[in-house]
Structure formats: C-alpha cells, structure tokens
Design a protein that fits this description.
alpha/beta; Lyase, Ornithine Decarboxylase, Chain A, domain 1; TIM Barrel; 2 domains; 9-stranded mixed β-sheet
Length: about 425
Amino acid sequence: MERLSNEGRLTLGGADVAALAAVYGTPLYLMDEDAIRQNCRAFASALADAYPGDGHVAYASKAFCCTQMARILKEEGLLGDVASGGELLTVLKGGVSPDGIIFHGNNKTEGELRYAIENRIRRIVVNGPEELSMISRIAGELSATASVSIRLSPGITIDAHSAVQTSKLDSKFGVPIETGGAMDAVKLALSLPNLFLAGIHCHLGSPVTETEPYRMAADIMLEFSAKVRDELGVTLGELNLGGGFAAQYLPEQTVKPIEEYVSVIAEAVQAAAKRHKLPLPELVIEPGRRIVADAGLTVYTVGSVKVIPGVRTYVSVDGGLPDNPRYMLYGSKYTITLPERASELKTETIALAGRCCENELLGIDMRIQPVKPGDKLAVLHTGAYNYSMASHYNRVPKPPVVMLRGGKPFVAVRRETWEDVSDRDV
C-alpha cells in the first residue's frame, strides 16, 4: 500500500512511485502484490475463525484479472470467481484448479458454457431457466454432469449507484424469490438430466458500506432454502452470498474491517440455519474490490494546466477514460497527489481531465499540490475496476501493470503499442 518516504515522496510496496514511472513510462498501473496477498489472507482467516462449517473465499476476478493475479489466488488458496470465457481461460492459465472456479454471468454464451463444462469447473451460477436448459443439453452432449447453483434476487436495495445494485427486484440479475420464479427454477433444475443442484447464490451489489444487508440476505436466502426443503424434500448444500465489500477511496471515508463483514455474515448464516432447522450450509463469499482496490494506483504525466479565472482549473493528463471510466460511469471519487511532492500541502482545487476527444474527466473539485506540466500525478486506490474496465477508446493503447513484490517491480501485463491496437484489423 502507498506510504510516504522520509523524503516526502510517494511509495507503493516500498518502491518510489515517481522513479517507477520514469522507468516504465505513463500511464502506468502499479499493484502491490504483498498487499493483495495480505487482503486474501485476511478474508480467509476471518472466515475460518468465524464460521464453524465449510467456508470458501472466492476472488471476484472482474475487479482485476490477469494471469499473475490467478497465480496469487492459487498460492493463497482462494477460489476464482469468473464472469466470461476470457476470465475463465486466464484463471486456468494462472494455475487455478478447475475445481476452484465459479462461473457467473447473466447471459453466458453456449461456447462459454461448453468450455466450462469441458473443464469440469466447480460451479456454474445460473441466472435463469433458459440457461439451465442449455447447460443440461451441453452436459449431456459431453457425457458430463454440470454442478450448478441458482442466482436468486432477494429483493434487497443497497445504498449505491443504480448501475451496481444487483439484488433488487428490478434487475437483470437473478431469479426473484418474491414472484415465485426462484422456486420454479429450483424445480426445473431438479427435473433436468445432467445437472447437480449444489445450492443458491445472491449478490447485493457494490460497494456495500454497511453489514445489515448481508444479515438480511442470509435470512432471506435460508428462509427460501427451508421452503425448498419443506416443499420439495431437498436440502440445498451451498449458500453463496456474493461480495460487494466496500473499499476506501477518500481519506475521510471509513470502511468496516474485513473481519466485521465476515463475522456478521457467519453469525447471520448460523442464526438463520438454526432458526429454520437447517444444517450449516457450505458458505461462499466473493470479495473482489476489497482485495485489490487499495493495492493499486495509477500514475500519469501532466500535459497542460488550463486556468479559467473564476471558473475552474483543468489539469490534463496522458490517460483518462480508456484506463479509468469509473468517474464517467458512476461519479466515482478518488484521491490524487504528486508523488514527488506528496508531503506538501494540497493548496489547489482542480478538475482532472483526460486526453480523449470528448469532455471526459477523472474527477472535479480535487485537491492537489501546486501542479505544472511535466509533473507526475498519481490517482490512489485504483486497483479495482480500472485495468479490468479499460478500453481502446480513441485507439489509445492500454497501460502496463507493474507489480511490486517485496519492493521489487516486475511486469505482470506489458504495455500495449499502437500496433497491438490495430493488429486485429483485416
């Protein structure tokens, strides 16, 4: 994680950020591998301490996915949660066992499902009846049995941007409990050949800043599980409560400790299981953002400073929308600093502008030290949903990912070139 050196310079994982930018160029994603591993271990140990039944931590790869990240999961003993064929291939290439992979998505293609079933992955999380039928057919063609869980919508609305609220009734995700669709999906799964129904899943959305929604989700999901037992005579063995655990982006924000999130979930599941006279389910949680967000930052070079008296100061950098679309999508707020003068007072208020051919920003009303063209500028806590959501808008090549292990840098993802961007053209 980032720190200040004795000279007042910004460091990440013990390495000088500005010096790394001088070697690797900008824009540049930096990731502290040691911090990632620390967060993985915090979730795993918290779950082992709080939950007496079988429990698993599955990393949500959509937050940040590359082969080196998959190697970390393998070495730290976490499962991998993927949401596309590309993520599935990457996690497999990184050495995660197929039995350690959970496949999500509301509209998986036939090719993706076939690839997952061919590889005998641990679980396919099904979003609806059409997918159940497709999986049954493909598994039959492959003489396989596909292990599935059904994603349910428990009807919980969290305090977050509408685009990342995924457990309310009005959502593309999950089969609603309250309409009766969830029970119909369970009946269908039990009736189809070549399927094993392992359990049920829900995901509240992200970021979830409070713990009460998880308590509510555990109660609603296990109440439904008890209804399945009572009406169909089937006890569902697995309960996956997803992720969404909030990470800190601004100094004034406070986020709950990892251990508090996990202990609330574990206690809620135990209480609900006891209340409904159910055996403790195999419990799965799926942190993504909280594992990688604070382990990363992005470094840019300032190209221009445009002062409009009485209006605003625009500081333009050599990245923007292609490497971090989150402000334009969600209004996401970040902390910025000048890594070579990180200890100096932030006396200026700016709008951080990107390089693309539209009025695209990385933030407004951001505080920073006196800044000039040529300065390196760091945006903190960009480890989640920056590299993974990067695009080629304006045909801008994607930055590299440089990881730090014990303060030593290595390239995890190489920098793209103009030629890379055009190589697929025919």
